[in-house]
């Protein structure tokens, strides 16, 4: 990338307050419905923009929803600090879920520390050990879970619905901002003064583990910086596959 001027930037969008109020009301209504229908609802946050919109809604309307984040052992320092920022801003607690040490050791023994670059199989194995398995353990016993997924994030997510069945885990999965556009997301975050992950200011619209995430150009797909050495159909880690 030749210069920072060509990097993706946070959209500077202004929408009518009436429209933003409707977004807020719809989000909070959806979260209230979810929390009233299920006794044990859990939200997995990456602390990036979409998940911060959902966190904002939870903090204001559905505090019974349990929030956790996956501390994979390969996160940016900014992500670790962001957890503290969010907890302080909203006065809530976010559980940090870590992978099991023996699983990490087994992966390194088989593939090497950064073996995920060598093949898609190794990448999937790393994601499973550091993210998917910890997620499964974190959702054990839950009645439902929530994500910040949106249709417009990537080609792999353009058929999202508000409610889906997580067939792997056998529980409902809710996507309360599934129908938000990019403009609506960033306008809402600015309107509500929601804390933003520092990497969004450095050309990262999507944020994952440090070795597998990079800044993108302004005209790239929003998830182009995730596992950039793989094709578009491989831009998922396994957390959100049915």
Task: Describe this entry's structure for a reader.
By secondary structure, the chain is of the alpha/beta class. The protein has a single domain (about 15-235), classed as HUPs (Rossmann fold, 3-Layer(aba) Sandwich), CATH 3.40.50.620. Helices cover about 35% and strands about 10% of the residues. It has 6 helices and 6 strands, in the order αβαβαβααβββα. The protein has helices spanning about 15-35, 50-60, 75-90, 100-110, 120-140, 180-190; strands spanning about 40-45, 65-70, 95, 145, 165, 170-175. Strands 3-2-1-4-6-5 form a 6-stranded mixed sheet, covered by helices on one side. Strand 5 and strand 6 form a beta hairpin. The termini are far apart. Catalyzes the formation of sulfite from adenosine 5'-phosphosulfate (APS) using thioredoxin as an electron donor. It is found in: Cytoplasm.
């Amino acid at each position: 990338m030749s210069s920072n001027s060509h990097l993706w930037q946070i959209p500077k969008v202004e929408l009518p307050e009436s429209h933003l109020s409707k977004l807020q009301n719809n989000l909070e209504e959806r979260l209230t419905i979810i929390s009233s229908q299920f006794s044990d609802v859990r939200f997995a946050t990456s602390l990036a923009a979409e998940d911060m919109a959902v966190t904002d809604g939870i903090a204001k309307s559905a505090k019974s929803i349990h929030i956790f984040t996956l501390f994979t052992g390969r996160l940016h320092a900014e992500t670790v600090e962001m957890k503290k920022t969010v907890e302080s801003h909203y006065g809530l607690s976010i559980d940090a879920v870590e992978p099991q040490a023996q699983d990490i050791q087994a992966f390194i023994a088989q593939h090497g520390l950064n073996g995920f670059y060598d093949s898609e199989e190794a990448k999937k194995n790393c994601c499973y050990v550091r993210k998917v398995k910890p997620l499964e353990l974190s959702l054990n016993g839950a009645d439902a879970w929530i994500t910040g997924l949106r249709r417009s994030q990537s080609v792999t997510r353009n058929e999202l619905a508000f409610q889906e069945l997580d067939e792997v885990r056998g529980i409902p999965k809710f996507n309360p901002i599934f129908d938000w556009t990019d403009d609506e997301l960033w306008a809402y975050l600015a309107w509500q003064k929601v804390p933003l992950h520092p990497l969004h200011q450095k050309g990262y619209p999507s944020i994952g583990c440090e070795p597998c995430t990079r800044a993108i150009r302004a005209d790239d797909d929003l998830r182009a910086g995730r596992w950039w050495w793989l094709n578009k159909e491989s831009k998922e880690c396994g957390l959100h596959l049915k």
